[in-house]
């Protein structure tokens, strides 16, 4: 390895590494799992890193991938070397431009971390459905199978596109390759300069549009010539494969790594050959070695260049002995005669044999198989099963990796088969997102990669929750490059970083015999055995395992590290695994700490070094008993008695056994029941709030701000307390606004669902009389309270909800008695969005449809296993769907159109059937006032009467009305999403929908960044904030979406911040829904991406409003009818300077600390903006309405 | 008229010195102070504790929530040149030094012995003309004796003196059992000046919110009595220079402080209240008094009414009204 440069990086960084250096312009937009490529490019540009021509590439974030493609197209046309990065839906949005770019023979490389397309559901994980959807664009398609190949092919693609003029899609598997961390050899810039020669660049430049040599491109053509024009390019496509091979050969000469367009690997006399591309090819290759050593005649044909498909080269790569060709596609094309690559191969064999290309003379059996959709595991066991499926009776169009018990297309495989070589150390780590496990493992890989000749691979699995998420790290180390792109199932070492997992996850099923189990536990080495569940004890005994324990929590805390046990567990890993000699490992960890944390300051470095020193003396080996002594078992994932679907399907997913569920377990069209989050008792809170009812003023704010609906209020008849658990708390209602007197009042916490964020305590205004450090809510450790409060919670739920008609909605105090129909989501602890959604569901949940833009809210709102939207006791609740990121407003408008049509039908039928159902009922139904809860309630009663009458009317009209009668009751359409959607990608549609005049309500939860993809800049990002894609601070002020909406003068507009004025939020929600036309509410949503204390986030909301940075107002066009000014300014003149607010948030502080002069300039500008904007609002709010009418 | 004075081995244009305050956070203010004739500027303090907290805070915000959710493995870009330690402060010293000719005295509040010496060294290399140690410390540990607290002060001073060669002033609180003894010990330990006295935030209570609210009240002229007494007492018994701070608002306040023996008089509240231009007013006021009283130079004034040079030296030792009455009875 001497003389060569190695890096331990992931696939995205490898792609960006080359793409950045061989381009001049990058047009970018965030989308998982490709975002990191763009983030790297932006960061490098901010740091001044140069490309191979010595200039810093220009990075332009666009409003959508479609916009990015347009910018790429334009930049290419004007002569710059230009690239972009994307995946999935993003690639779809680029397709129109891709046809153009290819049609104009324009050289570019798009780097794609291939990801599933949303169909019945969205998935962020990897398969080829996106790139396959782009296969007709005319782009060449080059597939990389490993992190090393990603770096290499980025360059080969760039050289080839410039030479061939065919644009390239360079793709690799999303997550599996894009996020796999591996030690790879770096392509030196000198090689890039040779491959991307000045001659090629000059040729590209010569084709640029320039007024100095004007031409016109992009004409419109007619039937007479379009066709001929389309056929002018064929020879470019014919030559392209040879150009790619030539560049591969040149690359081999320069680096020693030889690639082929179609690379055969395996037995020379193979009778079975799998045709496959991207990462799975590595798995097949590894399995081929294993099977060959058992005497099997198998081989694999790795497809690197999928488009243009070079039949001759393909045929030349197939051994003459091949009897069965099995083509594996990682995509599904329903209704086709086969998935795309299979059809290409069928045709290639047909045409290729006709033309006698290659050596194959007997037509082989060609089988199609599908694997790995949405990063489904593809393992040697599956490969082996595929090889076994050949000859007569073989299944064609099979699937592998799942159990298809419906269409019976799946192949069986032996899940226990493993071919992991002995010289590879395999380790698995179970941790929490918050404990730093993944970071530590990434660091360990780097240490091993950089300090030894070993190769290393790391892959990380995250659950879909944003709070309390569980992470599983899979690490391999060995003397040869690691070609195992699948999860570890036979680990030499399994580490349990949180002792709670012992009771919930069967971690030892993955431990190999004689392996080591490391546990972080508060129990000593003498106590631990007795605490282990049966399954753990028996597997430790049977597998003759070694067991180590450490109280990492205490070591971390004593070293000043709090809950982050990363360094402690990392030291344990090195101490036990023996990958490096102990002393060398410790030294390397310490060096790495200095390097990694040096930037964060001496205090952090010392803390970590201290943790290293404190670890070894606290690490103990435990003697394994000879017999199982435990009486406990690993817990069931959902409570006994849960609904069947929850228990049999969702529970299995929760338990991590979703892979084992058969096809028949699932709905055919992606429809799932709501209200299932209540069964997933996650118990992630360390502390939960307890209620001091003597101090409590019953203001309702705690329930209002709770992001997870885990603190709730009920007022109820005293007799309902019969049978209450002993510790159930109850007090007289203090409020006189309720219709009934003498009610009892309870605030109850759901202990197992609470995330322990503490925002309820922050908002609580009541301090205890004799101890002002305590409020009416006090956080207490959850564990001792868990069982008691769980019983209290169950009892609380059994108390009926108050009649909705009797709940006054004019103040938070009473409104919060409404039942939330959104609960226990996977949102971040302390989330700033979910309180808004929860309030919406309280107010309108029984009549609302939600159109949810893709983003945080669609993930915590609709990511399996469980669903937080719930139903009330009448079975009503929000109906929810997510269409796309870019079309949400239009999607929601579609709801409205459909509802209105069905309402219109129903009203027409009521008129037609008036005599039969009774004129009075018909009249009442048609003239009902549904502007308040009571009106809606009465209408529902009438509909019930109507249906009863319709039962007895035998006519087609009556049957139709029966079906549509419910549309006579009000339905509320809510279009919900974040600022990335509303300000950027979905703005065009949103604007149109606001202009439509239709009665839809829009809730924009404005976190001022793309939160779900990790905090990228949007047009809502304020000036002076550092965000991804604004690594040097946002230079332009936030777009004023409210002002734009107000310009229509026919749209209800409100800007709210519940942490500043909750009553104003409530008012705005009620007014928006009542307004018979489009409404938009822009809601300040504090966010983890702001860099704030998420247990005290309301202080930030207050400061945002108090500084004038966030102005509260309501614009109600209905006021004009009454001769009033439509605008009500709810903010007062600023109390503090913007600087004070900005100083509270890391996003602003980062700029103050890195570029103080620039930060100051932005801050001064922000202050000026705030002053003038507020004055403008004051002016608008002070005008008389008559002027507006003029 | 010669207003010059010696302080920390430097000759200052005037005894009016801007004490550590937010004014010095802005280079343009420092220029304005120079234009107004200030003798020297003490920079706002570098707080080691704040640096430590900021490091921890930054570390928290850049790690909290990371590597937990597949779509958002981080929430912030990696920022180059993030200045967490004393860099921004040092850069500010450098900028101030290159912007003005007036002496720049850095101010440091450490929280560990290593912090005191390391930062002192960095401040020296950043070009500060002198260093004021702002030992801001309220001992609350009931097991810590007064002697130990006193020794900590001396240790810090000695450590810093051993680490740097620029002059070192010590800004102190009056809360020692025997301030004379302490002053002597600091003098012997090599303090180049004592700055008397530090004023602290005194927490208040917000009765609406039931919260403790830290605030700093701007000083009144009456606050100068305490330092005036101690400067008078110390003037002839220690070698170190003496700087008066607290309650100096007018030219006559300055004159009084000079009479008891101050080398310099420090201004803070008066400038925050009246603006930087007020330096001129004070100087004019002081000059007018000197003219009226026939003083040609500040050095003539300095110490002419120290304890030893007053008719009744015990007047500076009287602590209570009762004693004063006794005198009349004699």
Model description:
The complex is a heterodimer of chains A (1190) and B (330). By secondary structure, chain A is α/β, with parallel strands linked by helices. Chain A folds into six domains: 249 residues, 3-Layer(aba) Sandwich (Rossmann fold); 141 residues, Rossmann fold (3-Layer(aba) Sandwich), CATH 3.40.50; 198 residues, Pyruvate-ferredoxin oxidoreductase, PFOR, domain III (Pyruvate-ferredoxin Oxidoreductase, domain 3, 3-Layer(aba) Sandwich); 36 residues, Pyruvate-ferredoxin Oxidoreductase, domain 4 (Irregular); 134 residues, Alpha-Beta Plaits; 182 residues, Thiamin diphosphate (ThDP)-binding fold, Pyr/PP domains (Rossmann fold, 3-Layer(aba) Sandwich), CATH 3.40.50. Helices cover 39% and strands 16% of the residues of chain A. Chain A contains 43 helices and 37 strands. In chain A, the strands form seven sheets. In chain A, strands 1-8-17-18-16-19-20-21-22 form a nine-stranded mixed β-sheet. Chain A has an eight-stranded mixed β-sheet with strand order 29-28-30-31-35-34-36-37, sandwiched between helices. In chain A, strand 10, helix 11 and strand 11 form a beta-alpha-beta unit. Chain A is globular, with a radius of gyration of 32 Å. In chain A, 55% of the residues are buried. Chain B is an alpha/beta fold and 330 residues long. In chain B, helix 4 packs parallel to helix 5, helix 7 runs parallel beside helix 8 and helix 8 crosses helix 10. Chain B has one domain: Alpha-Beta Barrel (TIM Barrel). An eight-stranded parallel barrel of chain B has the order 3-4-5-6-7-8-11-12, surrounded by eight helices. In chain B, strand 6, helix 5 and strand 7 form a beta-alpha-beta unit. At the A-B interface, helix 2, helix 15, helix 21 and helix 41 of A face helix 2 of B.
């Amino acid at each position: 390895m001497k003389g060569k440069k190695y890096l331990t990086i992931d696939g995205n960084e490898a792609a960006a590494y080359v793409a950045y250096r061989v381009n001049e312009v990058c047009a970018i937009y965030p989308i998982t799992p490709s975002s990191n490529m763009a983030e790297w490019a932006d960061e490098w540009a901010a740091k001044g890193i140069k490309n191979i021509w010595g200039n810093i590439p220009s990075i332009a974030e666009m409003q959508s991938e479609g916009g990015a493609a347009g910018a790429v197209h334009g930049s290419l046309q004007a002569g710059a070397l230009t690239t972009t990065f994307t995946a999935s839906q993003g690639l779809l949005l680029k397709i129109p431009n891709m046809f153009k770019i290819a049609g104009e023979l324009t050289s570019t490389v798009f780097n794609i971390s291939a990801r599933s397309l949303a169909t019945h559901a969205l998935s962020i994980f990897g398969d080829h459905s996106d790139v396959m959807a782009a296969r007709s664009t005319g782009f060449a398609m080059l597939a990389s199978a490993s992190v090393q190949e990603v770096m290499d092919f980025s360059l080969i693609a760039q050289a080839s596109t410039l030479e061939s003029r065919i644009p390239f899609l360079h793709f690799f598997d999303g997550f599996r390759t894009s996020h796999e961390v591996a030690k790879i050899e770096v392509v030196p810039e000198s090689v890039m300069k040779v491959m991307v020669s000045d001659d090629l660049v000059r040729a590209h430049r010569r084709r640029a549009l320039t007024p100095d040599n004007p031409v016109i491109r992009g004409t419109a053509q007619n039937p007479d010539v379009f066709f001929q024009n389309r056929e002018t390019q064929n020879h470019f496509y014919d030559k392209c494969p040879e150009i790619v091979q030539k560049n591969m050969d040149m690359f081999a000469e320069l680096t020693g790594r030889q690639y082929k367009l179609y690379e055969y690997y395996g037995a020379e006399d193979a009778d079975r050959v799998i045709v496959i591309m991207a990462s799975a090819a590595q798995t097949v290759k590894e399995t081929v070695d294993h099977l060959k050593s058992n005497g099997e005649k198998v081989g694999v044909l790795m497809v690197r260049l999928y488009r243009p498909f070079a039949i001759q080269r393909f045929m030349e790569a197939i051994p003459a002995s091949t009897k069965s060709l099995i083509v594996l596609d990682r995509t599904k094309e329903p209704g086709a005669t086969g998935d795309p690559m299979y059809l290409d191969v069928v045709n290639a064999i047909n045409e290729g044999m006709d033309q006698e290309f290659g050596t194959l003379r007997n037509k082989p059996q060609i089988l199609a198989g599908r694997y790995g959709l949405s990063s489904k595991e593809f393992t040697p066991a599956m490969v082996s099963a595929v090889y076994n499926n050949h000859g007569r009776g073989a299944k064609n169009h099979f699937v592998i990796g799942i159990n298809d018990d419906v269409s019976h297309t799946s192949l069986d495989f032996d899940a226990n088969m493993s071919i992991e070589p002995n010289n590879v150390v395999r380790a698995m780590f179970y941790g929490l997102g918050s404990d730093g496990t993944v970071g530590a493992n990434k660091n360990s890989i780097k240490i091993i990669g950089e300090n030894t000749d070993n190769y290393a691979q790391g892959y990380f699995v995250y659950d879909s929750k944003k709070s309390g998420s569980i992470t599983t790290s899979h690490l391999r180390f060995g003397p040869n490059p690691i070609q195992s792109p699948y999860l570890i199932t036979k680990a030499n070492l399994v580490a349990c970083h949180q002792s709670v997992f012992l009771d919930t996850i069967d971690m030892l099923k993955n431990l190999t015999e004689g392996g080591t189990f490391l546990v972080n536990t508060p129990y000593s080495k003498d106590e631990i055995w007795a605490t282990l569940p049966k399954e753990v004890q028996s597997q430790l005994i049977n597998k003759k395992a070694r067991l180590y324990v450490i109280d990492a929590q205490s070591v971390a805390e004593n070293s000043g590290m709090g809950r982050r046990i990363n360094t402690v567990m990392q030291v344990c890993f090195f101490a036990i695994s023996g990958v490096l000699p102990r002393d060398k490992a410790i030294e390397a960890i310490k060096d790495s700490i200095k390097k990694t944390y040096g930037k964060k300051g001496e205090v952090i470095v010392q803390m970590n070094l201290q943790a290293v020193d404190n670890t070894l003396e606290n690490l103990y080996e435990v003697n394994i008993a000879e017999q199982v002594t435990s009486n406990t078992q690993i817990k069931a994932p959902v409570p006994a008695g849960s609904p069947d679907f929850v228990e049999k399907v969702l529970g299995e997913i929760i338990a991590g056994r979703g892979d084992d569920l058969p096809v028949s377990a699932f709905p055919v069209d992606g429809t799932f029941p709501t209200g299932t989050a209540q069964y997933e008792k996650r118990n992630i809170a360390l502390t939960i709030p307890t209620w001091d009812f003597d101090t409590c003023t019953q203001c309702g704010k705690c329930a209002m701000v709770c992001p997870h609906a885990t603190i709730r209020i009920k007022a109820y008849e005293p007799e309902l307390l019969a049978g209450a658990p002993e510790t159930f708390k109850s007090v007289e209602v203090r409020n006189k606004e309720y219709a009934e007197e003498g009610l009892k009042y309870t605030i109850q916490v759901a202990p197992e669902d609470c995330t322990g964020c503490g925002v309820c305590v922050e908002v609580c205004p009541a301090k205890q009389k004799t101890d002002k450090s305590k409020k009416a809510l006090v956080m207490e450790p959850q564990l001792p309270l868990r069982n008691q409060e769980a019983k209290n919670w169950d009892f609380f739920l059994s108390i009926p909800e108050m009649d909705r008609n009797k709940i006054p909605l004019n103040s938070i105090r009473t409104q919060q008695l409404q039942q939330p129909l959104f609960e226990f989501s996977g949102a971040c602890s302390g989330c700033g969005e979910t309180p808004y959604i929860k309030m919406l569901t309280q107010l309108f949940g029984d009549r609302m449809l939600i159109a949810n833009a893709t983003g945080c809210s669609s993930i915590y709102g609709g990511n399996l296993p469980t669903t937080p939207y719930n139903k009330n006791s009448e079975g009503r609740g929000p109906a929810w769907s997510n269409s796309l990121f870019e079309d949400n407003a239009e999607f929601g408008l579609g709801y409205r159109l459909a509802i209105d049509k069905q309402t219109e039908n129903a009203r027409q039928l009521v008129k037609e059937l008036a005599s039969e159902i009774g004129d009075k009922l018909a009249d009442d139904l048609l003239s009902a006032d549904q502007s308040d809860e009571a009106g809606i309630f009465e209408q529902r009663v009438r509909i019930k009467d109507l249906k009863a009458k319709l039962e007895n009317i035998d006519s087609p009209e009556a049957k139709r009305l029966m079906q549509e009668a419910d549309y006579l009751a009000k339905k509320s359409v809510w279009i919900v999403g974040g600022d990335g959607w509303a300000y950027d990608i979905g703005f065009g549609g949103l604007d149109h929908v606001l202009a439509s005049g239709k009665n839809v309500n829009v809730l924009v939860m404005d976190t001022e960044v793309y939160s779900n993809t990790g905090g990228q800049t949007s047009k809502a990002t304020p000036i002076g904030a550092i965000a991804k894609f604004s690594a040097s601070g946002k230079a332009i002020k936030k777009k004023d979406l409210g002002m734009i909406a107000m310009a229509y003068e026919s749209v209800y507009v409100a800007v709210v911040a519940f942490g500043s004025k909750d009553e104003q939020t409530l008012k705005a929600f009620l007014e928006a829904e009542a307004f018979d036309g489009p409404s938009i509410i822009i809601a300040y949503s504090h966010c983890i991406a702001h860099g704030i204390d998420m247990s005290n986030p309301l202080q930030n909301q207050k400061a945002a409003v108090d500084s004038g940075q966030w102005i509260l107002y309501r614009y109600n066009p209905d006021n004009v009818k009454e001769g009033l000014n439509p605008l009500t300014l709810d903010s007062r003149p600023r109390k503090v300077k913007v600087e004070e607010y900005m100083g509270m948030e890391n996003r602003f502080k980062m700029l103050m600390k890195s570029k103080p002069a620039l930060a100051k300039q932005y801050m001064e500008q922000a202050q000026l903006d705030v002053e003038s904007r507020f004055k403008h609002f004051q002016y608008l709010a002070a005008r008389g309405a008559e002027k507006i009418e003029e | 008229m010669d207003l010059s004075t010696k302080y920390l081995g430097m000759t200052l244009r005037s005894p009016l010195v801007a004490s550590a305050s937010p004014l010095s956070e802005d280079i343009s203010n420092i220029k304005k102070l120079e234009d107004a004739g200030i003798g020297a500027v003490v920079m706002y303090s570098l707080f080691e504790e704040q640096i430590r907290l900021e490091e921890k805070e930054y570390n928290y915000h850049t790690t909290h929530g990371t590597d937990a959710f597949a779509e958002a493995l981080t929430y912030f870009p990696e920022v180059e040149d993030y200045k967490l330690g004393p860099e921004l402060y040092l850069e500010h010293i450098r900028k101030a030094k290159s912007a003005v000719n007036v002496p720049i005295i850095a101010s440091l509040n450490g929280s560990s012995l290593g912090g005191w010496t390391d930062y002192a060294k960095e401040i020296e290399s950043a070009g500060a003309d002198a260093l004021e140690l702002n030992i801001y410390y309220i001992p609350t540990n009931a097991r810590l004796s007064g002697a130990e607290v006193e020794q900590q002060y001396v240790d810090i001073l000695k450590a810093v003196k051993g680490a740097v060669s620029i002059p070192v002033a010590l800004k102190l609180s009056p809360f020692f059992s025997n301030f004379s003894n302490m002053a002597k010990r600091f003098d012997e330990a090599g303090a180049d000046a004592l700055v008397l006295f530090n004023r602290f935030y005194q927490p208040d209570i917000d009765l609406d919110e039931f919260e403790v609210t830290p605030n700093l009240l701007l000083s009144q002229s009456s606050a100068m009595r305490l330092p005036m007494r101690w400067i008078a007492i110390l003037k002839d018994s220690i070698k170190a220079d003496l700087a008066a701070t607290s309650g100096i608002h007018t030219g006559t306040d300055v004159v009084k402080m000079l009479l008891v023996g101050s080398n310099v008089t420090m201004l803070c509240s008066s400038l925050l209240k009246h603006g930087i231009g007020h330096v001129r007013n004070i100087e004019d006021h002081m000059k007018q008094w000197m003219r009226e009283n026939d003083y040609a130079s500040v050095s003539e004034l300095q110490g002419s009414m120290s304890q030893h040079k007053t008719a009744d030296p015990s007047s500076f030792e009287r602590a209570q009204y009762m004693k004063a009455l006794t005198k009349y009875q004699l």
